[in-house]
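Methods — Computational structure assignment.
A single polypeptide chain was analysed. Its primary sequence is given first, followed by the predicted tertiary structure written as structure tokens.
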Amino acid sequence: MKILIVEDDLGMVELLSKVLSKHDLKIARDGREAIIKFEQEKPDLVLMDIELPYMDGVSATREIRKIDPNAKIIAVTAFGVQRGKEIMREGAMDVIVKPFKVKDLLSRIDKVLKTQS
């Protein structure tokens, strides 16, 4: 499975890369790069931070959903309480609040991937 990780925090990128190491991982460091990589890579899943440089995750989610209305996007953010509803309105299927338990992350990914588009 191909997963696009959109995250500007290197520590979080490393953690997600370790946890999801059996998958084909692509990394984007900001919202604009996320849109470009989404178009190029056609990932099965996007893990989207909200607070990003250049273009935030809410705007990037909106743009990705214009490209592919069936894109599977999970927000992984420390700002879930404040901005979770906002990113869900733009098409994210779930919001995982940092810090999270790895088991919770994996079960939510599994649940979203089983959701029919």
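Note: The chain has one domain: 2-111.
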